[in-house]
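About this split. The held-out portion is used to measure sequence recovery: a designer receives only the structure tokens and must propose an amino acid at every position. Recovery is the fraction of positions where the proposal matches the reference. Here is one held-out target exactly as it appears in the evaluation file.
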């Protein structure tokens, strides 16, 4: 009886783990609204959900920019330090604008903790929109 229970339990465990693995491979975004969501999943979901508002903010600051395309694979959260201690975190995402692949745009959000969800109050641009010319990078406008 005990042996039968162990075999059935092991089989169920393998099936559940296999199902989660297959789900993760076929649809990696399934975790976003689940208990398995990581901080990165939640932050990326927030950014994608607020993409239109972020683009409007960029256009209000730089009227010559007409379109913005973010590269979500460039998402990064890094520590901000004064040389002695970490004083916060910076979430950044790169992109291009005006349908020109030779342009560079980086949006930054200040975070108190690495796992915080960004807010529009903390948006900024540490570097102005730029365009590549030859081997250099020049400020756009």
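Reference sequence for scoring:
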């Amino acid at each position: 009886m005990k042996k039968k229970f162990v075999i059935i339990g092991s089989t169920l465990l393998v099936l559940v783990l296999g199902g989660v693995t297959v789900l993760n491979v076929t649809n990696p975004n399934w975790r976003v609204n689940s208990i398995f969501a990581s901080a990165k999943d939640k932050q990326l979901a927030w950014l994608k959900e607020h993409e239109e508002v972020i683009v409007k903010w960029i256009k209000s600051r730089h009227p010559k920019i007409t379109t913005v395309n973010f590269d979500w694979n460039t998402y990064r959260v890094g520590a901000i330090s004064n040389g002695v201690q970490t004083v916060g975190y910076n979430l950044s995402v790169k992109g291009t604008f005006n349908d020109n692949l030779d342009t560079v745009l980086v949006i930054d959000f200040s975070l108190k903790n690495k796992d915080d969800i960004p807010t529009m109050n903390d948006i900024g641009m540490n570097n102005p929109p730029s365009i590549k010319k030859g081997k250099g990078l020049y400020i756009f406008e």
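Annotator remark: The chain has one domain: 36-139.
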